[in-house]
Specification:
Layout: E1 2-4, H1 9-20, E2 27-30, H2 34-44, E3 48-51, E4 65-67, H3 69-78, E5 83-86, H4 94-102, E6 106-109, H5 113-118, E7 127-129, H6 132-140, E8 147-154, H7 164-167, H8 172-175, H9 185-193, H10 195-208, E9 213-218, E10 223-229, E11 234-238, H11 244-252, H12 265-268, E12 273-274, H13 287-292, H14 297-312, H15 318-331, H16 339-355
Parallel strand pairs: 1-2, 1-5, 2-3, 3-4, 5-6, 6-7, 8-9
Antiparallel strand pairs: 8-10, 9-12, 10-11
């Protein structure tokens, strides 16, 4: 495989599956965790390595190391491997997805932004989703039974139990205290704002086609997806939150041995479901418009990435983050007609959002 984002949580789990099932690793692409990258190189002996910063090249223990976006694209094109795991974060993962598809490769996709910004221009028949929620929908949707609605679940993020009046003044440190697990900085902030679920709903729309999609909060994170059928019945995908399961299916197509501990329903005791309320998650008011106009995802993503940059730098508070995104989203009406438009709109939206003061 070609593994993009090897030192993140998805990448680490992908390598655990590679080790368990003796799968070869052709290329490793990593960010700034050079210490972990060197450990991965020693264990998996990839043919080539790509890092984010050219200053880190000398610290990497490998004879063939390059850096930057063009190096990632070149590695995808030159590799004989026909399988790419894209676990890069943000808009930076879009070009590698396009390059992999251009080269006829299959993609195990964790970079949800690839579909959020450019789903209309991506061949989803060559994509296998490895987000827990989309894997759950795929797992349940293996029959020809007519589907009425697809539902994904949310943890509720860091502020799901906070008094509403306190959320607006929450700090970066507060936003990073996820109630259920530890994740990277951006996805944890997206979880707190509920942006992550907007992205995942849009991703589901591109993966599974037109239809009704929604999300609810399930506080234990044991149910990842539900499908309502036309006959009135509903199925749910239960599993412990562990990325090794969807990654294993993506890499091997079928799994016939235990990967996770079975959930004991008698020990769970009870489950709690909550509606996602706009009062707590103001961005949720965009859900219907976004699903009706899925090409507007490029606007939402660009505004979100700039708003997060401002929040992380301490320029705005958490309450202002959503205000900034909503203001930008309402300002732009254009949608992309081709891949080149995606990059042009992304740049224009970022410039506008940087100039906003709220």
């Amino acid at each position: 495989m070609i593994l993009l984002g090897s030192t993140g949580s998805i990448g680490v789990n992908a390598l655990l599956i590679a080790e368990r099932f003796n799968l070869s690793v052709d290329t490793l692409v990593a960010g700034r965790n050079i210490s972990l990258l060197n450990q991965q190189i020693q264990k998996f002996n990839p043919k080539r390595v790509v890092v984010l910063d050219p200053k880190d090249i000398s610290a990497v223990h490998h004879p063939y190391v390059t850096s930057g976006e063009n190096a990632i694209l070149e590695a995808i094109e030159s590799s004989s491997s026909d399988f790419v795991v894209n676990a890069l974060v943000g808009f930076a993962g879009f070009r590698p997805t396009l390059k992999a598809l251009e080269c006829g490769k299959r993609i195990a996709l964790a970079n949800k932004e690839s579909l959020v910004v450019g789903g209309a221009f991506v061949d989803t028949s060559r994509i296998i989703p490895i987000d827990s929620e989309h894997f759950g929908l795929w797992y349940l949707n293996q029959t020809a039974r007519p589907v009425s609605r697809m539902v994904i679940t949310a943890s509720g993020g860091a502020f799901r139990d906070w008094p509403l009046e306190n959320v607006v003044n929450a700090t970066l440190s507060d936003a990073l205290k996820h109630p259920n697990w530890s994740m990277g900085q951006k996805i944890t902030i997206d979880s707190a704002s509920m942006m992550n679920k907007l992205f995942e709903l849009l991703e589901a729309r591109w993966l599974f086609g037109e239809g009704e999609y929604d999300a609810i909060i399930e506080t234990r994170s044991l149910i990842h997806a539900l499908i309502d059928y036309t006959d009135g019945s509903t199925t749910a995908h239960f599993a412990h939150a562990d990325m090794k399961l969807p990654i294993a299916y993506a890499l091997m197509g079928e799994v016939n041995e235990p990967l996770l501990e079975r959930i004991d329903l008698t020990r769970i005791g009870s489950l709690e479901f909550r509606e996602i309320q706009k009062e707590r998650y103001p961005l949720w008011e965009l859900k219907n418009d976004l699903l009706c106009n899925p090409k507007r995802g490029v606007i939402l993503n660009a505004a979100n990435e700039i708003a997060i940059e401002k929040f992380v730098r301490g320029e705005i508070g958490f309450g202002t983050l959503s205000t900034l995104i909503l203001k930008t989203y309402s300002h732009f009406s254009q949608t992309p007609h081709c891949v080149e438009d995606v990059f042009a709109i992304d740049e224009e939206v970022r410039s506008y959002t940087r100039g906003l003061s709220c």
